Amino acid sequence: MLKRPLAAAAALVLLAGLSACSDDDEPTSARDTSDQSSEQPTNPDGADCVYEEDGAPAAKEVDLPADQAAYDGEVAMTISLSAGDVDVTLDAGAAPCTVNSFTSLAAQGYFDDTVCHRLTTGPFLQVLQCGDPSASGSGGPGYSFADELTGDETYGAGTLAMANAGPDTNGSQFFIVYGDSQLDPAYTVFGSVDPATLGVVQDIADEGVEGGYEDGPPASPVTIEGMTVN
């Protein structure tokens, strides 16, 4: 069950509520990635990345991303929501391994037909959270990877960032910031939303949270229909 914090405490509980559970005691070697979709390019000169199985069952079966980042610059992508298309620019220069994981999952159809399970509408925290096929708030891809942080991150409207359950516990859950949010620089920023399409997420927020709370499932269900690298 999602916690429904008071507005003043919303930023404090983001850490606990935005990510898959993991078991850091059981890392294993990478799974075979030979069956990955051809939509994910290979790049022998890409940044070195490490992805470790985290001991938790995958919410939807996928292969581990390649251990070299597929991209090294800006990557244009469209996230097709049931509410409309959201155009984003991924920053593989700042977060190559995060972008590599995100595009790998997208290429494998991991995000397709999944529910964005959390919306926050408080004065300190305004985000739409997606990326958990179980829609429970604790699901993930069965692997985790390290943060890519500078310590100077801010979370203004249009920020695309990873959810986590503590340092270096990134999986598949991510959030779109639709209004300036007050967060510690503990969440990897890996892209931004085109201002022309941020209104799609803001319109979702205008519909409110189920039950009239400030934190919980969107009142109007939101589904990711697919993701496309442009």
TrEMBL record:
CDD domains associated with the record: cyclophilin
A molecular function GO annotation: peptidyl-prolyl cis-trans isomerase activity
Keywords: Isomerase, Rotamase, Signal
Catalytic activity reported: [protein]-peptidylproline (omega=180) = [protein]-peptidylproline (omega=0)
Region spans: Disordered: 21-47, 211-230
Matches recorded under SUPFAM superfamilies: Cyclophilin-like
Positions of the PPIase cyclophilin-type domain: 83-229
Keyword Isomerase: yes
Stretch forming the signal peptide: 1-22
Enzyme class: isomerase
EC number assigned by the record: 5.2.1.8
InterPro entries recorded: Cyclophilin-like_dom_sf (IPR029000), Cyclophilin-type_PPIase_dom (IPR002130), Cyclophilin_A-like (IPR044666)
Task of the protein: PPIases accelerate the folding of proteins. It catalyzes the cis-trans isomerization of proline imidic peptide bonds in oligopeptides.
Family assignment from sequence similarity: Belongs to the cyclophilin-type PPIase family.
Listed name of the protein: Peptidyl-prolyl cis-trans isomerase
Organism: Nocardioides szechwanensis
